[in-house]
Amino acid sequence: MTAKVFTRLLGLSVLLLAFYTGAMEFVLHRLVEHAPAAALRLTGREALWTVLIALAFALALSAWVAVRVSGRLRQVVDFARRVAEGDLSARLAGGEDELTAVEAALNQTAERLGQSFAEIESRRQELAAMLDSMQEAVVAITSEGLVRWSNAVMQRITGAPIHLGRPLVHSVRDPDVLACVQVALTQGEVRFGRANSLAPGRIFEINAVPLPSGGALAVLHDVTRIEAAERSRRDFIANVSHELRTPLTSIQGYVETLIEDPDPNPETTREFLGIILKNATRMNRLTEDLIALAGVESPDYKLALQPTRASALVHDAIESLGGIVVESKVKLESAGAPDDMVMADPDAMNQVFGNLIENALKYGKAGKRIRVGARRLEDAVEFTVQDFGPGIASEHLSRIFERFYRIDKARSRESGGTGLGLAIVKHIVQAHGGSIRAESELGAGAQFHFTLPLLPSATPPAS
User: What pTM, to 2 d.p., does this model score?
Assistant: First the structure.
């Protein structure tokens, strides 16, 4: 760079010198025509020295200007290189010559570029944070089928890192997802679908759309809970309809028989009315349990919590339900309970113990006794209702707290059960912040354990 600038300035100096020489030649030529020889020799020597001095001055000036200009140009080139490499903080020092305006314009350009890139990066981070916070999984694919970008949800669903720049099929093996993306890429159409094998036990709705700049965007929405809720709703309606239809059909049949008989037998009439009353009572219990279940499942369900001793809850349960157990010729006994304080709603706890003991009476009556107790855990008190009947098979334990789930449907209907008691118990215990589980071995009875959190030490105990 320095050599090129120096050469150009030297050429300019030579041109100026040539012009100066031509002018001098013209002047000397006029002098030669009218001046004597001695004067000509003196004038020639002076002209020669003048030319040499001018030439030396021109060379020195050219070299100084070349070095100065090349240094400034070197700074501009270095500035341009740093900006090209992404260093938008680079600036030119500036000066007081003609290059100052150029340097100021370049500095302003670099500053605007820096602001633009900072704004773009800020928006990119906001968009990435927004997409990562979505519940939906999102993945962008290039027109070649390579992963351009994916959010954190997509990474969690696949269970393995999704590498950018690699084919989508390397990370996602679900055929429905790949088919929807392929249609969006090749045909440029919006494609909907469902994925059942992307993650075990989960169902996703797929929405694949083509992008204006090429490629496609796939959005996966988890509908597992929605599907489960819809299935639960259908099962619930079917179960309620079945539970109501059976006693209604029985009531209708016996009433029609009584009406059509012109001279009914009093004993037969009494028997039929007893059956009608039994079925009406069953419907009434089902209605009450449905109302109770709807109440405990409601977001507005509130408990009247108060500090209560665990031993008092066990004692009240045995005292209030002892009469029912005696009538069934089953012994209700206490297994002991600590005096630790828990936060509980006494009325709700009476319903919990009542449902569990009633359940033990129905299915564990053969054991002739029911034991109720509690024990202290690290941060909770665990209550237990145990019977000594035939027990429950292991395949039923995981579903026993579902609505309308029965181990022996015929026996349950014969005993008047609605299939909602344990579901009500589960929701009440969970509303207290506890948990419930069942343990059993065939031939050794069943145990139902539920926990209530201990009262914080700062809370004063009830008097």
Answer: 0.54
> How many of the other CB atoms lie within 10 Å of CB of 19?
10
User: In 133-223, where does DSSP find H-type helix?
Assistant: 152-158, 175-187
Three-state secondary-structure class, residue 307: strand
The answer to whether the CB of 221 falls within 8 A of the CB of 205 is yes
Kindly report, residue by residue over 25-77, the tens digit of the pLDDT: 665 566 556 556 565 566 666 666 766 676 677 667 666 766 666 666 676 67
Per-residue pLDDT tens over the stretch 8-21:
556 666 666 666 66
Hunting for tokens 């602001």 — which residue is that? 115
Q: What is the dihedral of CA 409, 412, 416, 419, to 10 degrees?
A: -80
Cα distance between residue 297 and residue 295, in whole Å: 5
- The residue whose two tokens read 């034991």 is 371
The tokens for 364 are 């564990």
- Residue 256 to residue 251: CA distance in whole angstroms: 9
Tokens of 228: 């489960």
Print burial letters for 231-254: b (CB count within 10 Å at least 16), e (below 16): eeeeeeeebbeebeeebeebbeeb
Distance CA 216, CA 188 (A): 8
Secondary structure (DSSP) of 308-355: EEHHHHHHHHHHHHHHHHHHTT-EEEE------EEEE-HHHHHHHHHH
